[in-house]
Structure formats: C-alpha cells, structure tokens
Amino acid sequence: MDKTPDKNPDITPGQNPRVELGANGDALITMVYMPRKVPDHLDRLRETRNFPERDVSMGFLKAQFKREVEKPYKQLGAVAAAWCENVPPDLLPHTRLDGLTRGVLNVIVDSSAVNYELDRVLRGGVWEKIVVASKGAVLRRWKTSVGVVEDADTDNQDRR
Q1: Statement: residue 105 has pLDDT above 80
Q2: CA 93 to CA 73: how far, in whole Å?
Q3: By the 8 A CB rule, do 103 and 140 touch?
Q4: Which 8-state DSSP code applies to residue 160?
Q5: Do 149 and 94 meet the contact criterion of CB atoms below 8 Å apart?
Q6: pLDDT at residue 5 is higher than 50
Q7: Backbone φ and ψ of 85, nearest 5°
Q8: Which among 147, 134, 55 has a CA at the least distance from the CA of 95?
Q9: Are strands 27-33 and 15-21 parallel, antiparallel or unpaired?
C-alpha cells in the first residue's frame, strides 16, 4: 500500500505527511501542518480589496483649506489692489471689500449716499478697469450693501 502524498486523497497541499513505523512494523502516516507561503498576487489583492485604514490625521483639511480659504483670499488680494488703484480716493475710506464668491464682489459701504456714488462710479467705467486689472480672479458683477466699515487706524487708537 503506497501512501505517498501524490496518491493519497487524504493529504492536501499545505500538509506534509510524516511516515513512522508502528510497534508491529506497519507504516503509520501522520499529517503535520506546514504553513504555505502566500502567493504575491494574494497580498496585492488584500491591499486593494481590504478597507483602507482610517485617517486620523488632519491632512484631509489641507485640500479643503486651499479651496475655501487660500484661493479666494489670493484672488481677493488681486482684486483689492485693483480696487485701491481705480476707486476714487474720496470713496475709498467709506468702502470695504467683504468677499468674492462665484464672481460676485461683495462690497460694504457705510451709508446709502456712498452706495449711490459708488454705483455711479462703477457704472461709469471703473468696473471694467477693475476687471482688467485683477488678473486671475473672475469678476462678473458687484453687490453693495450698507454696513459697518471698520478702519484699521481707528481700531488701533481705541485699543491704546
């Protein structure tokens, strides 16, 4: 009776048979489990098909910060420089750029009279100059609203 691993149906791959002689001289076959080397393609499958480890770092905020803060304020900086160059000096202290959202420049003015004057100036051709001078930022229209315009010099004097 031949008990080689090739012909014995009880022996599966990954198990190594151990042949020993019994007390009466019969051959005893015992199975010893030997771990198999996992093929490389299975390791690659495990890497791609398993769930990735949870990211507990703050790295996910980098793209969001760039999209929501850095880029709009970089564009607003270019618009602010063009605004200061083209808006008349008598209206400039009464205005404040509030933000740039989807091509709409939000401007805060301190009174309705300044709002009217600024509207006339922008419609008179200054808006086109600002659009051309602010490179990189897409300006479609402006929106003015009456609010509080804080002056940086006034804030510093109040704190002293």
Answers
A1: yes
A2: 20
A3: yes
A4: -
A5: yes
A6: no
A7: -75, -35
A8: 147
A9: antiparallel
pTM: 0.53
pLDDT digits (tens, 9 = 90+) for 110-124: 999 999 999 999 999
Which residue bears the tokens 């609203």? 145
Backbone angles phi, psi at 145, to 5 degrees: -145, 150
Closest CA to 32 of 52, 17, 13, 49: 17
What amino acid is encoded at 98 in this protein? D
Q: What is the number of other CB atoms lying within 10 angstroms of the CB of residue 95?
A: 19
Is 109:95 a contact under the CB 8 Å cutoff? yes
Q: Which helix (H) or strand (E) holds 113?
A: helix 112-121
3-15 exposure pattern, b = at least 16 Cβ within 10 A, e = fewer: eeeeeeeebeeee
Q: Please give the structure tokens belonging to residue 135.
A: 């490179």
Strands 141-146 and 104-109: parallel
Largest CA distance in the chain: 117
Q: Given this model, what pLDDT does residue 76 score? A: 83
| Residues 119/144, Cβ–Cβ less than 8 Å | yes
Higher pLDDT, 152 or 132: 132
**Domains of the chain and CATH, by start:** 15-49 (no CATH), 65-159 (3.30.300.180)
